[in-house]
Structures are given as structure tokens and as C-alpha cells.
Amino acid sequence: MTIAVFDKLLKQAAQAGIITNKAVDATNWLRDKASAVRIADPQRVIQQGVDRGRTQLKVGQMFLFRYDPKLKDKLPYHDRFPLVFPISRDSKGFYGLNMHYLPMQFRAIMMDNLYQLINNYKNDETTRLRLTYSLLSSAAKFKYYKPCFKHYLNSQVESKFIYIAPNEWDVALFLPLQRFRGASAATVHKDSRRIITGR
Question: Alpha-carbon distance 105 to 199, whole Å?
Fold first, then answer.
């Protein structure tokens, strides 16, 4: 089963003669179209992506899932539907980059830099980002990782991990799939901008 909102935008790209590889024009076209979508229901995306559901994560791939933080009452805010590139695992869960915490401008810059870490352009399940925490924390161009680096507990994940194919990354990144609790997206993004820029 395809995820309708992804499928629709990718078909529009094909009809418009846009080649969905990492050519700058194609990337920008997809991002613009995805950003123009007013409403996208993350729960529906999860339901439509049932055939993509995974119980295990692979580092460097993209996943969407439903999450209920254990200490949510102590958090200023949290995202109920994280869109994550996992980086590493531990005994209780995993660490990853939830791209929803970045404002759109920084999301684009961060993703363009992350594409430099891609292992191949096959756009299949062998394709991933070669991500490590030490790499992100040591290179200035990856400074945007700071507000979106999160730890997730396996016990608090409330759905399967929905695998997002590499040719869909730019669509998923710019769709309004975040559902923040405790603060508006504008407030979250303002805080993230302060963490990144120091002002």
C-alpha cells in the first residue's frame, strides 16, 4: 500500500517532468510542493503505511511513528509523531534526529548537509545516511542537529516504525506532520533557532 500524500506529490513530480533524484531543482520542487500542503494527518500516514511497518529500526534510515513520552509532564513540549533518522541504540531505546524540531529553513540546510553522508542513490532499503553522534557534534555544518537530537524509549512507542523511502525524504520532511504537545510549532522552532544560533 502506498502512502497517498507521498504518492500524489511524487506522481505530480513525474508529470511535471521533474526527476526525483538529488538534482537541486527536483529537490526544491518537491520541498515547495510539500510545504504548500496545509493539512497532513500523521495518524493516517501511519495507517496507510501499514505494509511499511517495522519493529526494528535501521540507523540512517527515516521513520515516522507515534510516541508518548514517559516523562511528558516534566517536558516543556514534545512531538507525538516523530520523524526520525536513528543514530544509535541503547538497552532501552534509541537516539535519533527528529527533524520536526527544526524550522523549515534550517531543516533544508540540515538535510542538504546530511545528503553528503548518503551511502548510495539506489533509493531502496540499502540506502541510508552514515550517521554517528561524533560526526554530527564535530562538524560545524551539522550544528543544526542540536535541538532535534532526542532519546526515545522503546516502551513508549505506540505504533510500528513506518519506513520512509529515500525518494520520499524531501516530501516527508516538509509536510506538516508534527503534532507538538505543550507548545505551538512556532514556539518550538523559535527555541530551536535560539539553540542553534545562540540568540
Answer: 16
